[in-house]
Amino acid sequence: MGATKWRARTRRELIIEVWEHLDCESVGAHELEQIQQALREKFGAGALESPASIARTVADEGAVLRHPEVFDCDLKWRKQNVDDLKFSEGLDFSSLPGAFQSMVKLEERRLELQMKLQTNDDLRGLTQLRDIVIRARKYSLLRARSKIIDPPQRDEAKEVSQWLTIWLQAPELFSDWLDLRRRAPEFRKKFGREESE
Fold first, then answer.
1. Between 29-43 and 67-89, two packed helices, what is the crossing angle to 10 degrees?
2. Cα angle, residue 44 at apex, residues 39 and 47 outer, rounded to 5°
3. Tens of pLDDT along 24-66?
C-alpha cells in the first residue's frame, strides 16, 4: 500500500480512492485498517479517522459493510487511542530527571510492542509510540529555542531533544547510547553529577 501514489487532496477523497483501489465488495476490519494506513502515510497521524467514520464514508459511496467487524475494529481503535493518551500523559520531558524516567517508560513500551509484533503483524502500536516521541521532540525543540526559558532549562531541552532524536533513529541502540551519554565527561560537566546518577 505504501508504494501507491494517491491523487486525493482531502481525507474524504483519499478514503474513497483507497476503497476503490481495494476493489472489494464489502468492507470490514482489514479494509478499514488499510484505509487508515493510507491516511497516516499521506496526511500524518493527526489526520487519522476512526474506523466507524471511514465506514460511514464508504457506505455513503455504496460499500456494503461487514458490521460486526466494523464495530470490533472501531472499538479496538478507540481503546488503543485511550491507552496511548493515558501513556503519553504520564511522560514528562520538561527536565532531565523527568525525561530520563520517561525514556525508561518509552523503552519498556517499545519492547512490549516488539514482543506483540512477533505474534501478529500490527505495526500500529509502534507507529503510535513513534508519533508520541515525534511530538515530544518538537516540544523539546521549541523549549530549546525559547527566549522566555532560562538558559540552563534551554540546555536541558536541547539535550532531551537529542535523546529523542537518537531514539527515533535507532531505538534498539538507544538504551546503551543513553547510558554512555550520561557517563560522558561533557554531560557531567554541563548538567552536574546528580543528573548522571
1. 40
2. 65
3. 889 998 899 888 888 888 887 666 788 899 999 989 988 899 9
Cβ contacts of 110 within 8 Å, gap of 6 or more: 126, 129, 171
**For residues 166 and 49, what is the distance between their CA atoms, to the nearest angstrom?**
30
Question: Would you state the pLDDT for residue 131?
Answer: 86
In degrees, rounded to 5, the angle at the alpha carbon of residue 36 between the alpha carbons of residues 168 and 63 is 170
Overall size of the chain counted in residues: 197
C-alpha cell at 6: 494517491
Bridge partners of 26?
Answer: 64
What are the tens digits of pLDDT across the range 122-164?
677 788 888 889 989 999 999 999 989 899 999 999 999 999 9
Q: What's this model's pTM, rounded to 2 decimal places?
A: 0.61
Q: At what angle do helices 51-60 and 67-89 cross, to 10 degrees?
A: 140
Q: Which residue has the cell 557531567?
A: 188
